Each structure stands twice: as structure tokens, then as C-alpha cells.
Amino acid sequence: xxxxxxxxxxxxxxxxxxxxxxxxxxxxxxxxxxxxxxxxxxxxxxxxxxxxxxxxxxxxxxxxxxxxxxxxxxxxxxxxxxxxxxxxxxxxxxxxxxxxxxxxxxxxxxxxxxxxxxxxxxxxxxxxxxxxxxxxxxxxxxxxxxxxxxxxxxxxxxxxxxxxxxxxxxxxxxxxxxxxxxxxxxxxxxxxxxxxxxxxxxxxxxxxxxxxxxxxxxxxxxxxxxxxxxxxxxxxxxxxxxxxxxxxxxxxxxxxxxxxxxxxxxxxxxxxxxxxxxxxxxxxxxxxxxxxxxxxxxxxxxxx
Length: 304
Hints:
By secondary structure, the chain is of the alpha+beta class. It folds into two domains: 15-40 and 129-303, Multidrug efflux transporter AcrB transmembrane domain (Multidrug efflux transporter AcrB transmembrane fold); 47-124, 2-Layer Sandwich (Alpha-Beta Plaits). Helices cover 67% and strands 9% of the residues. A four-stranded antiparallel beta sheet has the order 2-3-1-4. Strand 2 and strand 3 form a beta hairpin. The model has no long low-confidence stretch (mean pLDDT 85).
């Protein structure tokens, strides 16, 4: 038996509930982004990354505590592989040697019984970090532009606005949640290159859901020519609801498993995907579709 077969929920007639929910989430997200900002990783602010070995029996919190005193800030520490840890700290280019010595000395002084060794050191200079930050912004904006043009060619300009509105909604709320939970969540929520990949994945996932609904709307516009447009959109959402829910639940289970068992290095990435799956599914129903309904109403009012 198909899930939600013959569904007939009044989703579009009750779209104002979605407006309230989205408005609240967007307001909280924007306030947090302006007030707290984002915790940028060394990819976007410059710094050093160490891989230390011989730490299979050392807890992440032990390493973090050992480095808190010697460093001026709390380092980012993640388990790396079976026997190591990944340590990230901010540092100016002129402080690289001094920072490496401080990290090594602190670990050897606080945890002498483990014979911890630094196996690898990577440096991201401030200028390179700024280039990465600029490239990440261009990547997200470029993705939104391509989506707008693709939907406009495949459907109409109003569908493009609906799709882009949903994507901006999804990315803003995801960033807002990262801003609100940074320093509170028991795992790192720093924005790095892997998180940018997660945001682009969210854009693709949300777009896929939205296109499925829009495609059904276009089909039903030709089949039910005498029905009001908002009823056609509501019918289209209900017709695709089974597919939307099954796909979203399946994807949610997979990314949750990745979050739980993928290790600390992938935890921020998988957490972003979890948020993206939930918000993306919601926005395809309560943001993208209502947007094209509102635009259609304005067009009809202008033509009258």
C-alpha cells in the first residue's frame, strides 16, 4: 500500500501557518547571524592544522583541556582515524613556528605517558583563507543563479522565483541554526570547505523536491483547466506527497547514521545534511509552492 495514497490535505489553503513558521525561523536565524555570527574554521580565517598520533586511548576532551592554557583560544579537536586526533588553531603566518612548538610542548607536558607525536602539519595563510571564503560565497550564489535560469527555462519565471525563495530560505535557516548552536552543541559547528559542500548538497536536494512538485503542477494545469490555480497546486502537492515523504525519510535515516557513526570529522557535515533534508522537504511544500500561488494571484489581479 502506498503511503499517503489519495491524500487530500488542505496545504495551500493553510499556507499562512507555513508563513508564520518560516517567518519565525528566518527572523531567529538572521538575528543570530547578525549578533553571534558564524564560527569560521581555519579554511576561512587562516591557521594551522595538526594531526597527532598515539592518541587512541586519549579522549578528545583531554587534548582540548591540555591545550586550553597554552593557547589564547579554545582549539578545535576531532578524532582522526583509529589512533589520532585532528587539532585546528588560529595563527598568523608569523606565528606558525611558535604555535607548533606551543601545541607540541603542551601535549607532551600534560599527557607525557602517551608519547604523542605530531604526524602532519598544514598551514592556511590569511590571504589564501580570504580567497577560499570569497570562492565559497561565489559557489553558493552561482548555484542559486544556475537554479533560477534552469527553472525559468524548464518552467516559467514565477517558478524560478519560488524555487530560489525556497533555497535561500533553506540555506539561511541552516546557517542560522549553526550560528545559534556554535559553542553549545557537543561537536564542532565551524564553517569549513566540507560545510560549503553540504550547503550545495542541500541546494540540490531541496531543488529536486521542488522540481517534482512543479512538474506535477504543470501537468495538472493542462488536465484541470477549469480549476483555480491554488487548488491545482494543492492537488499537485498531495499527489507527490507519498514520494516526498518516503524519499525524505530514507535520506534522513542515511544521514543520521552518518552523523552517529561517521566520526567527528564528518559530524558537522552530516548535521548540516540532517537540517537540510528536514528544511528542504518543508520548503518544497510550504515555501516554493505558496510562492507561485501568490505570484499567480498578483498576475491575475494585475490583469483584471
